[in-house]
Specification:
The chain has 103 residues and is mainly α. It has 3 helices and no strands. Helix 2 runs antiparallel to helix 3.
C-alpha cells in the first residue's frame, strides 16, 4: 500500500492500518519478542559457561557480536512497540498528525 493511500484513508476517518497490516504488525511483535528472549537466554548461557576451546580473542569477539545482536534486536522491538502505539493512537484519533508524535 502506498503512502498516498494511507494518507487518503487517514483523512477519510478510516483506520490507519487495514486488518492485514494489523496482523503483520502483531506477528512482527511476537517474532521480535521471541528473538530478544532467545538472544538473552543464549547470552546468559554463554556468560554462565563460556566455551573453553576458543582463543580469548575469539571469545571476546563472540561476546561482542552477541552484545551487538542483542542491542539490535532490542532496538527493533522498541521500534515495533512504538509503531503499535502510533497505530493505536491513529485509530483512536484519526485527525491527529500521524507523522508527529511524542515518545
Amino acid at each position: 500500500m502506498s503512502d498516498v493511500e494511507h494518507t487518503d484513508r487517514a483523512r477519510a476517518d478510516e483506520p490507519f492500518l487495514d486488518p492485514e497490516e494489523d496482523r503483520m504488525l502483531a506477528d512482527a511483535l511476537v517474532k521480535a519478542r521471541r528473538l530478544v528472549a532467545n538472544l538473552e537466554e543464549q547470552q546468559r548461557e554463554l556468560l554462565a559457561s563460556p566455551p573453553t576451546d576458543l582463543e580469548p580473542e575469539k571469545l571476546a569477539l563472540g561476546k561482542f557480536a552477541m552484545d551487538k545482536a542483542l542491542a539490535s534486536a532490542r532496538r527493533m522491538l522498541t521500534a515495533l512497540e512504538e509503531a503499535l502505539v502510533i497505530r493505536t493512537k491513529a485509530d483512536e484519533d484519526p485527525q491527529q498528525d500521524i507523522n508527529h508524535h511524542d515518545n
